[in-house]
Design goal:
The complex is a heterodimer of chains A (293) and B (279). Chain A is mainly alpha-helical and 293 residues long. Chain A contains twelve helices and two strands, in the order αββααααααααααα. Helices cover 74% and strands 1% of the residues of chain A. The chains are: A mainly alpha (293), B mainly alpha (279).
Chain lengths: 293, 279
């Protein structure tokens, strides 16, 4: 009697186990997603006691008429592509480079992962100091020791140099993720395959393409897709480092909590969501052709 | 032949060390400044090895009368601990259901968790802010906790599920024969077998909550509730910040997550589980 009942009870037990998680996710993700759409059609007054007013597509029109928005989209696309490609390539390169047994490998792994584990605020303080225009060590080396430029670069206050700075920072912060993912796969590749390629007279590049690449391809798709999404709506690292790189995350945050235009901010987040979705589909279909399993 | 091998080994190690030096450089700066006198930190030309060493900044940050670091630390610890305990607990329940039980909507749920894993964070700040303020959670640590739990939950469930998949079903059946209830098998049999994976779920959630800037900056206004990241950053924007203190505070802030991460990696090494951490 009991065994028969168990099968039937499976489903209700599963729902019971999942119910707290589902309740939380419905309350704090599902409901906000719908509420976000509602807000994006409203004019939200600053005073929370006053009701919001339905204004149709005005928030969206305001977004699409805002030159800052287009600027922000371009910056975000450029930034996302640069950081995703560079951090993936660097992570892969380091993983391939270190893919052998050597003394101190664990220590080196730990050093690589450090910039990924430490809170971003702590890292950013150090960068602010290094790139300080008066007593920073970077300008000391660039200007006073190597005499590359006469003028002292104001790293944080010019759009182009700030962009470069944030890119290098994010590269340093995010490549360990790619490194760890590839490292796990590379160690699982059968070493005799490389020996066979070697016997066939393959160059290092040829053996990479013939042996390594097919093995890492699924990981590559995952790493690139996830990194693209995460960089696309990045906020913290950029915002803490400089006010000169207005990626969409920063644009959205400022619209909500500096300009206090919640309706427009909601509209921006819907557009952002749609852009990310399109981007992911594009990556999956065009850039990295995923084979059917 | 042997000589050639030695040479290539030296060349390899040379490049490894170079890589490490570049990657560690900002940390070296952090340590160096935390040990310098204030005059030296803003002196020119900059030094890497301090001319005069001092531990005064490490003493100062623990003095609540001149630096509110301990208060921030307490707030961050409270938030991160609650988030990670809840994430582990709900992860065990949800992971078990998705790993062991067949039920309608199981695949849909898996997909939903993955979707939430990809899309979250800043996209929902406007509705979340409005909702939680409406229910009176403005300027509370609990608002941050609620948001961080939902942020970490999908990964927590995914990680526990993947690990539970590797545990043989026979072990559970043995427990059931011995008269354990279903909840009993989860907490008496599955959980003790999964300690290493549950520790890494805990560490993952703790790190995400400990690092959070976004939700804390939205919800928390009053200075006595600030977490470390936003607290330190708000001090940074005042004109009288002191570099040595900021760096000392940064190092102390990094310590718990670095130690926890290293510890969880040690535990995992036996039974490697897949996937990295979100960040």
């Amino acid at each position: 009697m009991k065994t028969k009942k168990r099968r039937k009870g499976d489903a209700s037990f599963a729902y019971a186990l999942l119910s707290p998680s589902l309740l939380l996710m419905t309350l704090l993700i599902g409901y906000p997603m719908i509420y976000n759409i509602v807000i994006s059609f409203q004019k939200v007054p600053l005073n929370p006691r006053l009701g919001s007013e339905f204004i149709g597509l005005k928030n969206y029109l305001s977004v699409f008429r805002d030159p800052t928005f287009y600027h922000s989209v371009l910056i975000t696309l450029l930034f996302t592509m640069t950081v995703t490609i560079l951090s993936t390539v660097l992570g892969l390169a380091v993983a391939v480079f270190l893919n052998r047994e050597f003394v101190g490998k664990k220590l080196v792994n730990g050093i690589i992962i450090l910039s990924y584990v430490v809170p971003s605020v702590c890292l950013i303080f150090s960068w602010r100091y290094m790139f300080n225009s008066i007593y920073g060590i970077v300008n000391y080396v660039v200007v006073d020791l190597l005499h590359i430029t006469k003028e002292v670069p104001l790293w944080f206050d010019r759009p182009v140099s700030a962009f470069v700075l944030v890119t290098i920072f994010c590269l340093w912060r995010f490549f360990p993720y790619a490194y760890m993912s590839f490292n796990a796969i590379l160690t699982s590749i059968d070493k005799t395959l490389y020996e066979a390629a070697d016997l066939d007279g393959a160059s290092p590049w040829e053996s990479f393409m013939a042996v390594t690449f097919p093995a890492i391809k699924p990981t590559l798709v995952t790493v690139v897709s996830l990194r693209t999404i995460w960089v696309f709506y990045i906020y913290t690292e950029v915002y803490l480092l400089t006010k000169q790189v207005d990626v969409l995350g920063v644009y959205l945050y400022d619209m909500a909590f500096a300009t206090h235009d919640f309706g427009k901010a909601a509209a921006i987040s819907i557009v952002l969501f749609a852009l990310i979705f399109a981007l992911v589909l594009f990556i999956r279909r065009k850039v990295l052709v995923v084979e059917d399993e | 032949m042997n000589k050639k091998k030695t040479l290539s080994n030296i060349w390899f190690y040379f490049r490894v060390i170079l890589l490490c030096v570049v990657l560690l450089f900002p940390f070296v700066i952090m340590v160096s400044i935390s040990l310098k006198t204030t005059a030296e930190t803003i002196g020119f030309p900059p030094t890497i090895i301090p001319r005069s060493w001092t531990l005064v900044h490490f003493r100062d940050i623990f003095n609540p009368r001149i630096f509110p670091f301990l208060q921030y630390f307490k707030n961050s610890l409270y938030i991160a601990l609650v988030v990670s305990v809840v994430a582990v607990f709900l992860g065990v329940l949800g992971g078990y259901a998705l790993s062991r039980l067949r039920f309608r909507g199981r695949n849909a749920m898996n997909e939903m968790f993955f979707l939430v894993y990809m899309f979250s964070g800043i996209l929902l700040i406007v509705p979340l802010y409005k909702m939680l303020v409406t229910v009176g959670m403005r300027n509370t640590r609990e608002a941050v906790i609620a948001c961080m739990i939902v942020q970490t939950l999908p990964t927590a469930i995914y990680m526990t599920r993947s690990y539970f998949d590797t545990i043989p079903k026979e072990l559970e059946e043995a427990g059931r024969v011995d008269g354990l209830s279903r909840m009993g098998t989860i907490f008496r049999i599955i959980v003790p077998l999964s300690v290493s994976s549950l520790v890494s779920v805990f560490v993952y959630a703790f790190m995400i909550a400990w690092n959070d800037v976004l939700f804390a900056s939205i919800f928390i206004d009053s200075s006595e509730l600030l977490t470390i990241p936003i607290g330190l950053n708000s001090l940074f924007n005042t004109p009288d910040y002191i570099w040595g203190r900021m760096m000392a505070a940064s190092l102390i802030t990094s310590l718990p997550v670095v130690v926890m991460y290293a510890f969880s990696q040690k535990l995992i090494r036996a039974g490697q589980i897949e996937g990295g951490i979100k960040g």
